[in-house]
Write a structure and sequence with these properties.
Length: 251
């Protein structure tokens, strides 16, 4: 497989002396769905932000498989972060407006993105009129409107109830299977990570570093049947044990 993103010996030290990451190595192949899992404060979000260019590393290197992939990157934050005064349609159009895409092309792209997240008919609604799950769908549509090749997602479903989260997990997988994105996904939820991913990368408590990289060898498409299978439960148990060990490790 072809590497899309590679972090090599990455260290991140904040101005107050906190070592967030130390000698972290990680490669995500093109088209893979890779979840980062670890205790709070282990640097999962920091890794994602460095990949996205939203944060700087202190030491180490970031390599892209191809420059064109880097140029087609989208980031989904923990909060939907919608403009409350703007409609769904206008919120999704924002990246295209900033890129000065012409109105006709932008309208087609917005319509396609809203269809992907099943929000047809809500174009003229305002964020205050939407549920938490629908707001996150708008946020995802805003990321997809630029037709990315790489999608970085920082706990996008963490604040949602379990039923909504489960539905969005399934919808996201269906989109990934169709669009073949390279996905880096941060979560605290073991079950979510196993259900979604080709690989689950487990990080140790601060300073953050990779202590396990587990392939999830279950075929796609995945369904509720996989969620209740012995294979799924075995993966969850194994990762839970690694997480417990990682939380206890100190350098």
């Amino acid at each position: 497989m072809t590497p899309a993103i590679t972090l090599s010996n990455v260290t991140k030290i904040y101005a107050n002396g906190t070592v967030a990451l130390q000698d972290l190595n990680l490669t995500i192949e093109e088209g893979q769905f890779v979840s980062l899992l670890g205790p709070s404060g282990c640097g999962k979000s920091t890794v994602l932000r460095i990949m996205a260019g939203l944060g700087q590393m202190t030491e180490g290197n970031l390599y892209w498989g191809e420059e064109r992939i880097k140029q087609r990157l989208a980031f989904v934050f923990q909060e939907a972060a919608l403009m409350p005064w703007a409609t769904v349609e206008d919120n999704v159009r924002l990246p295209l407006k900033l890129a000065k895409v012409n109105q006709r092309e932008a309208a087609m792209a917005v319509s396609e993105a809203l269809e992907m997240v099943e929000l047809q008919g809500f174009e003229h609604c305002y964020p205050r009129e939407l549920s938490g799950g629908m707001k996150m769908r708008v946020s995802i549509a805003r990321s997809l409107v630029t037709k990315p090749k790489v999608l970085l997602m920082d706990e996008p479903f963490g604040a949602l109830d379990e039923m909504t989260r489960s539905k969005l997990n399934t919808d996201l997988l269906h989109l990934w299977e169709k669009k073949h994105w390279t996905v880096g996904f941060v979560t605290h939820n073991i079950y979510e990570a196993v259900y979604l991913s080709n690989r689950v990368v487990v990080m140790a408590a601060r300073p953050g570093r990779v202590i396990a990289d587990l392939p999830i060898e279950a075929p796609y498409p995945r369904s509720e049947e996989f969620r209740t299978s012995a294979l799924f439960n075995n993966y969850c148990r194994d990762i839970s044990q690694i997480l417990a060990q990682g939380a206890a490790i100190r350098l």
